[in-house]
Specification:
This protein is an alpha+beta fold. The chain has a single domain, classed as TATA-Binding Protein (2-Layer Sandwich), CATH 3.30.310. The protein is built from two helices and three strands. It has a three-stranded antiparallel beta sheet with strand order 1-2-3.
C-alpha cells in the first residue's frame, strides 16, 4: 500500500498489514462504503474491505481468516 492509503480503523489497518506480509495484495479503491480489496492473485479470490465497518474487531478477524485461508497460495 502506498503512503496515505492507511485504513482509518487501527484494528483493520493492522490486519491489512498482516495480510500484506503474508503475500496478499491490498488495493485502496475508495468508492462509497468500500475502502478497497484484499486480493489473492494466484487463486483470483478477493475480500471486500469497508471504510466504516459496524464492528472493527469482526472486520479485522474476517481479514485474518481470509489471510490464513490463502497464505499457502500467496
Amino acid at each position: 500500500m502506498p503512503l496515505g492509503d492507511k485504513h482509518q480503523k487501527k484494528d483493520v489497518e493492522a490486519a491489512l498489514k498482516r495480510a500484506e506480509k503474508a503475500g496478499l495484495k491490498v488495493t485502496h479503491d475508495k468508492n462509497r462504503h468500500r475502502w478497497g480489496w484484499l486480493i489473492c492473485c494466484p487463486c483470483n479470490k478477493s475480500e471486500l474491505v469497508y471504510c466504516t465497518p459496524r464492528n472493527t474487531g469482526d472486520a479485522a478477524n474476517r481479514i485474518d481468516q481470509f489471510t490464513e485461508k490463502h497464505r499457502s497460495c500467496a
